[in-house]
Design brief:
By secondary structure, the protein is of the alpha+beta class. It contains 26 helices and 16 strands. The chain is elongated and about 135 Å long. The two termini are 70 Å apart.
């Protein structure tokens, strides 16, 4: 049958196999072709850089100073030897080829210097002491040895050749340091960063040195070094403005004048032309070109005759044509590395955005990991609880029967013939032991003795096993609670990290126009502003950093800057923090932010039971962040030090969790689990917390087995109550949150049960406390707290039967210390739209 199936396969099946084989071969060939193309592209890129380095080597091999010194070649070759060893051979050939165009014996001298340097390099490499930091010294030694040998075999030994030899070696030493800084900027792809002034200067020196190799070459009577030097100035003037254009002009003019002493005037001509071209940067390429033409033409009139002036003008025109043909992308590539340019700021902003997006993505991934861990722990706990009751019951019954019924002669009669009756008998007895652990055999129903002849033995053994069973179940329950606690904590951490990722992902906006408007307004006041960074302009979440020159004792940030910002933004702005960044220079960095719409003033009064020093109550007033102010009281079980520890621990943990951004209910459950797991003793604490939003005055009350709180609004007293068990008693506790809107002038009174229970059980406590609060005079929170505590103690006959704590908080509008400051001509700022 199998042979028949093989022979008579359908035609479409055989065709399909061929097609699949053909597809696999086609896919393999495509992958092979793609890999070959990638290798070809990499090889082409490597050859491109090798060709560029070789051309630079050729020109630097030809470059000389005063037709006597040639320090460029050996310095360039040394840097290539350390940084781009793969291009060493073609660069060496190019340098020697370029040196053939120098006066005799320049080519032999440069070739000898390269050979000596390679011998020194190989010698140090064999001793494993080779390092880039030794390159300048190796160049100095190689050049000095060749120069010294040339003097020794020369016709005379005078001071001038010795001086020139030492100067040539010293210039090689310095140029090596310069090329070490400049060459990586050309050959290695740089990340988005700012170039230091030293790096920009080194790059200009390298490019000017390369142009020195063009000295003496001309096309149609126009000097190539003059054309390229002006083209280089145009590029940098367009990218960096007047300072960079003038700097490039000075450096290139200096190096070109060293190569040809007759062109000393080029230094001032190029510097002036670069400055003038950079000043026209705002007018784009056309304006920069006009600035170069004007600068070179004006100075050519003074330095040269009419004929040379026309030659200089034509050289500038050729450089301008090359500049106009240069793509904008090349100029932007240069500008993004120059600090202070728009391209650089945009590049930095894009780089920061990429870092922010990557960070947010990583935080989101960690959040998902914690959420998955939380889900896993929760599943383990639920699965363990679901099957544990039935399994524990079976183990319990098996242990009893194995120990009591194993030696009984009627075992076969009971468990085989009357299995269900015996099993029911055992379960009923277990239920009886569970309901009454001290039950005796005489208290059992008489019919049980007729079912089993060893009822007393079964009862005693079952009572013993039941104690062990309860002990095991208690520990297993604690393990399950611990797992559930870990699951809830992981879930809370996941939520906090998710919120953090959302905050990171908020699109940062470059607000140059708003920063310029603030700077203009502050400078109109006569302030010296170093920098302004706007982090956020969202209403209620303004954050601005200002670095300014301050005068000790004048407090300009609170008296002038904050009032002016308040007027510009139409929102109360306050000083959040102030730090001296450069005390010697008198610079201070001040962070301004949205002032709270409301402020909370609190007063606290407390007394310990019996007049002791240490009370079991704890209280706290703390800023949780995001404009939330927390007022809280906790009453520990009992009195004294242990009760104080429990209450302060409950408040401390709860505040830290809320400050981290965890949800209120989850934070309370987490604290509850910690208090339950950390001690086998039954210690608990009440929690009464009011979370006041200082921007809206909306208040969330978190009351856990605490005494009622009261809000006095004019002559009205509003109670705030909730019914919960104290924290630290049961695992699955319910948390009730009450949200109320407070108004300016409202007074919030929070108290422990030592105050609320003072009148005893015969009096309606709520009505009594309302009357006491209504009788309070004044509006100062501390005076009200002291007066209310004194009234309660006098009502009890000057005796303190329990710990007493009162916290009184008053809600008021925030009034800035200084009124807003309005300047003529400065209007309100247009805020960017927030992207959710």
């Amino acid at each position: 049958m199998s042979k028949s199936n093989v022979v008579n396969l359908p035609e479409w099946t055989r065709t399909g196999n061929k097609d699949n084989k053909a597809q696999k071969e086609s896919l393999g060939s495509r992958l092979k072709t793609w890999a070959q193309n990638q290798r070809a592209l990499q090889l082409l890129a490597a050859k491109k850089w090798m060709l560029l380095l070789s051309v630079m080597g050729f020109l630097l091999g030809r470059a000389t100073i005063l037709n006597e010194l040639s320090p460029f070649a050996i310095a360039y070759f040394a840097v290539i030897m350390f940084m781009r060893r793969d291009s060493m051979l073609p660069v060496a050939v190019a340098i020697i080829a370029g040196s053939l165009f120098t006066p005799f014996p320049g080519g032999l001298v440069i070739a000898a210097e390269l050979i000596i340097f390679m011998l020194v390099y190989k010698g140090m490499e064999s001793f494993q002491r080779i390092d880039l930091s030794y390159a300048p010294l190796m160049v100095f030694v190689s050049s000095f040895m060749v120069g010294l040998f040339q003097i020794v075999i020369g016709p005379s030994f005078t001071w001038y050749p010795m001086m020139m030899m030492t100067l040539d070696a010293g210039l090689g030493f310095v140029l090596t340091l310069v090329f070490v800084q400049a060459l990586p900027l050309l050959t290695f792809r740089q990340k988005s960063r700012s170039l230091r002034n030293e790096e920009i200067l080194c790059l200009i020196i390298l490019l000017a040195s390369v142009m020195t190799g063009l000295v003496g070459w001309s096309v149609g009577g126009l000097s190539l070094e003059h054309i390229l030097s002006r083209y280089l100035i145009l590029l940098f003037a367009m990218a960096g403005g007047a300072p960079l254009g003038a700097a490039v002009g000075v450096v290139t003019g200096l190096i070109l004048s060293l190569a040809d002493i007759g062109a000393i005037y080029q230094m001032s001509l190029l510097a002036f032309s670069g400055m003038l071209a950079g000043m026209m940067q705002g007018g784009r390429k056309g304006a920069v070109s006009i600035g170069m033409l004007l600068g070179s033409s004006i100075l050519s009139v003074y330095f040269t005759g009419p004929g040379d002036m026309m030659v200089s003008t034509w050289e500038t025109c050729v450089a301008v044509v090359l500049f106009l043909l240069t793509p904008r992308s090349m100029i932007s590539a240069i500008a993004k590395y120059v600090p202070g340019t728009a391209d650089h700021s945009r590049s930095q902003h894009e780089y920061a955005r990429r870092v922010r997006d990557i960070t947010a993505e990583r935080v989101t991934q960690f959040s998902q990991v914690f959420r998955q861990l939380s889900s896993s722990f929760g599943q383990i706990s639920r699965a363990g609880e679901a099957g544990t009751a039935e399994r524990e019951m079976e183990d319990f019954m098996s242990t009893v029967t194995d120990n009591v019924c194993a030696g009984c002669v009627r075992r076969g009669h009971c468990w085989d013939a009357k299995f269900y009756q015996t099993y029911r008998y055992m379960t009923d007895m277990m239920t009886t032991v569970e309901e009454c652990p001290d039950v005796t055999a005489a208290q059992l129903p008489p019919e049980w003795n007729r079912i089993c002849g060893k009822t007393g033995e079964v009862l005693e053994f079952m009572k013993g096993q039941y104690g062990l069973y309860q002990h095991d179940m208690r520990w297993k329950r604690q393990i399950y609670d611990s797992r559930q606690f870990v699951a809830e904590q992981l879930s809370g951490v996941s939520q906090v990290m998710e919120d953090l990722a959302k905050e990171i992902k908020r699109e940062g906006q470059a607000m140059y126009r708003q920063e310029s408007q603030i700077r203009e307004a502050l400078e109109k006041l006569g302030l010296s502003i170093h920098s302004i960074d706007i982090l956020s302009l969202d209403p209620g979440r303004v954050e601005i950093e200002v670095v300014h020159a301050y005068t000790r004792g004048f407090d300009e940030c609170r008296k002038m800057i904050a009032p002016l910002l308040s007027d510009i933004l139409n929102e109360n702005i306050a000083v959040m923090s102030e730090t001296a960044v450069h005390p010697r220079e008198g610079l201070s960095m001040v962070t301004f932010g949205s002032a709270k719409a409301y402020e909370v003033n609190t007063g606290i009064a407390n007394a310990a039971k019996g007049g002791d020093l240490l009370s079991g109550d704890s209280f706290s007033t703390v800023e949780l962040g995001n404009g939330t102010f927390a007022v809280s009281i906790s009453d520990g079980m009992g009195n004294g030090e242990r009760a104080r520890m429990e209450s302060s621990a409950a408040l401390g943990m709860l505040e830290k969790l809320l400050q981290s951004g965890m949800d209120e209910k989850l934070a309370v459950k987490s604290v509850n689990s910690v208090l339950m797991l950390r001690s086998p003793d039954e210690f608990y604490a009440t929690v009464d917390m009011a979370l006041i939003d200082q921007y809206s005055a909306q208040t969330t009350f978190m009351k856990i087995a605490s005494a009622p709180s009261f809000i006095r609004r004019g002559s009205e007293v509003i109670p705030v109550t909730a019914s919960n068990l104290p924290i630290g008693i049961i695992q699955d506790m319910e948390v009730d949150l009450i949200t109320l809107q407070l108004h300016p002038g409202d007074i919030l009174i929070m108290m422990t049960d030592g105050i609320y229970d003072a009148p005893g059980y015969a009096v309606n406590k709520e009505i009594w406390m309302k009357r006491m609060i209504q009788e309070l005079e004044g509006h100062d929170p501390q005076d009200m707290a002291d007066t209310l505590l004194e009234k309660v103690i006098r009502y009890q006959g000057n005796e303190i039967h329990d710990d007493m704590t009162i916290v009184v908080s008053r809600i008021d509008h925030y009034h800035p210390e200084w009124s807003s400051l309005q300047l003529p001509g400065i209007g309100r700022m247009e805020r960017p739209r927030t992207v959710s």
